[in-house]
């Protein structure tokens, strides 16, 4: 394709599109690094599915330097050459309106070729970015994705005519099934840079409208069940009950899968295969109490307890594999199903107004509610938020105001014995803290929370193969980064115990616990140990014969105080040490402040 006539501009001036003779594969010299293919397109057009088809199994998930915006990279074979493939963050325009689009524009300058993934069922919205990519002078091939849905929606597209009008290769694809992917790869060699003049936004939209009018025909068709469900799930009256039902179902599924994996898979494997090794090592290290304390930890009733012994080789490995991994797997499975089905954007729109009250947008409701199952997947879910500011506020609010399922079980079991009204007071206090702290952080935390601007995709049937690949990739990344942090963290905690640092902390905090919180001095140790496991720490309050008021204060403070070590690890992993330390300072102030208020108000 060398030449083509196009009518551009509001005045209808005719200009000529000229494809440059230099192919994309010669843009780098042989001595340079591997060539780079970028997958670019609007959000929710199937870029991840295209990436999965092209890149095989060896992929890396990373954050772009200096940002929290994530992208994925892998490799593909193109002839005899190994080429890097990058799934660029979704963008609607090359004139950035958010951090993800800024990263997309920056990455475009480093690529050799762009595969522009376009939603064939929403041609007009997607082609605006296509025209910008062509103007940018980069070699472009269009993957006209979700091609199978066009016939279901009564849409007919003349692909050959679309090619002629754009001046670049266009290949229909169905990434979830692999249809058209081989032809897409084959036609990458036809990519050429197209020299065009810059246009205004209105000129581009006029051009997009002209193209769509000439290549697309829409026929009438009857609504399907998915169409009707899609409409019902976004309408305010029906959408909110559906959303609450979906979220409750997700909460139950994450909890059911996580607890089931722990009870029937992880614990039996640890007890059958790993416990004999650690028991033998414990016997060998018996003569070296300090080394035994560091590697094995304390023996509980003469035996190794995976969650309480606190040895680097016992609890240090059990936390990521036995406590965190099952919930990470469950969360990512549920999140991937919601993502690929197309429900997340609808959920975000429904809760957008509420979440804006605390400086967040609608997507923040997902990690908040998942946190009620376990804070770990809740904080992991902050990845769906665009700005670092939003992720910090959300993760901090989860850590302080949202008790995990294990802690909730202890609150109902221990505090509930004294009367349901005391449980209500605990939850009401947590809600007030969540809301007021959110408003304060919204005022104090610098940064920008972007408006919720998104294209709502239609519901689509999911591909289990693609979901399995996505989940396995995320789990590998988590384990690779989490295990060293947990083992090292447990190691440091044991050293602090050996040198009596925790005794000093207990001594220093006892005046606050006794005089501000109104708790007996024996409650100091459970509160300090809440860092290790909140639900266990709350159980340690049971033998202290506390009054209902003291139980409420103890439960509230523990819920707001430092999250368990697993949550801390994920917080550091997602937001870094600096953000974690800031959040920890906030946790101390809020927990003591609200505990003190309860001590003054309650009788």
Please provide a brief summary of the model.
By secondary structure, the protein is of the alpha/beta class. The protein contains 23 helices and 14 strands.
How are the secondary structure elements laid out?
Blueprint: E1 3-8, E2 13-23, E3 36-40, H1 47-55, E4 60-63, E5 70-78, E6 81-87, H2 99-108, E7 113-119, H3 123-135, E8 140-145, H4 147-152, E9 155-157, H5 159-166, E10 170-172, H6 181-186, E11 192-195, H7 201-215, E12 216-218, H8 225-232, H9 236-284, H10 289-295, E13 299-300, E14 303-304, H11 315-341, H12 344-356, H13 365-370, H14 375-380, H15 388-401, H16 405-415, H17 420-444, H18 464-498, H19 501-516, H20 524-529, H21 534-539, H22 548-560, H23 565-601
Parallel strand pairs: 3-6, 3-7, 7-8, 8-10
Antiparallel strand pairs: 1-2, 2-11, 4-5, 5-6, 9-12, 13-14
Helix pairs in contact: 3-7, 5-7, 9-11, 10-18, 11-18, 15-17, 15-23, 16-22, 17-22, 18-23, 22-23
Provide a descriptive summary of the structure in words.
- The protein has 23 helices and 14 strands.
- The protein is α/β, with parallel strands linked by helices.
- The chain folds into two domains: 3-221, 3-Layer(aba) Sandwich (Rossmann fold), CATH 3.40.50.300; 236-601, no CATH class.
- The strands form four sheets. It has a seven-stranded mixed β-sheet, sandwiched between helices.
- The chain is elongated, with a radius of gyration of 28 Å.
- It starts with a strand and ends with a helix.
